Amino acid sequence: MLECQLMKKILVILGHPSLESFNGAIFKHYIKSARIAGHQVRTLELGELNFDVVFRNPHDRNVELEPDLKKAQKDISWAEHLVFIYPIWWGNVPALLKGFIDRVFLSGFSHHYLSGSRHEKLLSGRSAHLIITMDGPTIFESIYLCGSATTRVMKQATLEFCGIKPVKITRIGQLRKKDKAAREKILEKITELAGQAF
Hints:
With 198 residues, this protein is of the alpha/beta class. Helix content is 39%, strand content 19%. The protein contains seven helices and seven strands, in the order H-E-H-E-H-E-H-E-E-E-H-H-E-H. Helix 2 (22-36) links the parallel strand 1 and strand 2 (40-45). It is globular and about 55 Å long.
């Protein structure tokens, strides 16, 4: 009975445009490990979705979303736990992931503005995990990049703003220098993380 209570509906989102990258390997490994652990898993490969990454009409609420983005919203609504896997490029998330967030996390879906500065968090009841890779050391992202501003934007200004919390963060640094054995150890850690899926 306890085991059933721990099972989660997980949506795993690959923010790197290529499935053949090491981010893609993490993505595939997380999915496989989570399913073996008994979780229900859906996936989104952002590089395979057909949508305009530019938020061209932010004030037009009648703009019709592309079918892939409508499905993404349904998957987010279904999920209890969201996993974002992406690299840090030029101190920020890939444009693909930023465009996805701009287009999908819309007012009326992820949040709703109330009077004054208040807002309703429409995605409450979900948790998230950010699995972030970078070529530099993790201390570079957490200290030199404005105190981890990029991660704070994802965690606080995006996910927690919409009610998604807790948000766990796993940083994988110096990826460019890691050999095959080191990368295998990373994937072993991913197996452990996927099984927990808090």
